[in-house]
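Hi all, long-time lurker, first post. I run a small reading group and we've been trying to get comfortable going from sequence to structure in the token notation. Rather than ask abstract questions, I figured I'd post a concrete chain and ask someone more experienced to write out its structure so we can walk through it together at our next meeting. Sequence below, copied exactly:
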Amino acid sequence: MTNNNLHFSERKNYDSDFCGSIPLNFINLIQGHGVLLVLEPASYTIVQASENASAILGSAAAALVQQPLQNYIGEKQLQTLSSELGRKDTGSNIPLTLQWQASGGSNVLSATLHNRELYLLLELEPARQTSGSAFVSTYQAISYTISSLKEATNLDEVSRVAVTELKKLSGFDRVMVYQFDDNWNGTVIAEAQEESMGESYLGLRFPASDVPKQARDLYFKTPFRIIPDIAAPTAKLYPVINPITSSLTDISDCTLRAVPLVHIEYLQNMGVMASMSTPIIVNNKLWGLISCHHRKAMPVGFELRTSFEIVSGIIASQISNREKEDSFQYRSMLHEIELKLMEQVYTSKNLSDGLLENPAYLLELLGVNGLALVFNNEYLTAGEVPDVRMIRNLVKWLSRYSKDKIFTTDSLPAFFEEATQYRDTASGLIALQITGGKHYLLGFRPEVSKSVNWGGNPNEAIKFEANSKKYHPRNSFNLWREQVEFTSHPWRQEVVEVAQHVRTAMLEKLLKEEEIY
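-- Answer (accepted) --
Happy to help. Here is the structure in token form:
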């Protein structure tokens, strides 16, 4: 374990535009544990096939191309497949079981069909036979997990139950719940792992470049990402160019989509041979992942994939419900304070008295330690604020660079260097523009210094070779500690909304006083 300290005065962005620009949907390679067929939608004629088809289907890719799918699955199964396509608007990812007939014999396959605008994608994997007792055991385990999740009282408990039960159910060496922050860095908030996995990742933060934008976007298309064996050979599509579109085939919907070499190297550096991740999507936003690692190759059947998908949905529901409840309670508390402030504003002689005669209301409403009202060449303050010179310069900076009626930042020194001298009073700022770009109500928050524990140095998440476009992920995930400075508590959306109410009240008060003009 290594400890490193870094003090910085601005919010760093560890997302990677370079990694995020890699076209993962047109990677044109699939993992070798299944076969991908591209079909013409009207006739179900095979126009492309992955080159590993002979190993799984008993027919070479070149022999399959231009053949009707019906030749291999029969009319009745083709009708079933077509009916399944008509139900895809339900979002179902339940595969069908197909009997594939070839000259070398028959195979039982799990088939998943995806509808693209001009073609169809058919993923085929050898069906994993599940006995009745195994199904009952899985059903009982997932039922117990769901019951335990519903009884959990907070996010920590929900996450802990999820990783503990999913590890038992799946057999993965490590199962984690990984939560994204506003900058797409991810923190491991729950973990269950074998002791032999070595260092724990619990509580560590990983830079956004570990799950770049392209990969994050694809989680909305596929309910899980499975890599059963990073050492297994990949397979190209034959022919390389899709004859229907005269371009590469978009395989973003496919579970079989191959893995970029940089991610394989990343897993190798972790000592992992297989992985699986399931998105946790809350209110149509990627909140986090259930991430799993295994030291050996590990196939993952449909039943297990579905179990993870169900648990992910329960976690998302629990998070959403708790966020709504917390927001409701917080809004209710703010509303009570807002009513007292509005009465004070509307019954006062003038705006400044209405806001600052009893500043406790406004201080509590905005959650700030200091206030400054800059209006009609006056600087009226309450609580802990910077000196007038700094406030005057800050207003000039706001009028020049911010067009927002409500401006917020939890790291003012990152934008306004002079604020570094006032870290104890002005590391966070909320600025309500009143009129003309020169009149403001300013709220200040002090610095909240904290340590962030990273899984490896985030500044070395991607390493380019000298004089080359080739790059590699970091090879160390040891604790790397960063000291965050010049940063306040973040601004909740509820506070920004109530600040808009305050701004409206200020304008109405000024109109009544006829001071706007």
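A couple of things your group might point at:
The domain at 7-24+132-230+259-323 is CATH 3.30.450.40 (Beta-Lactamase).
Confidence is low (pLDDT under 50) at residues 1-10.
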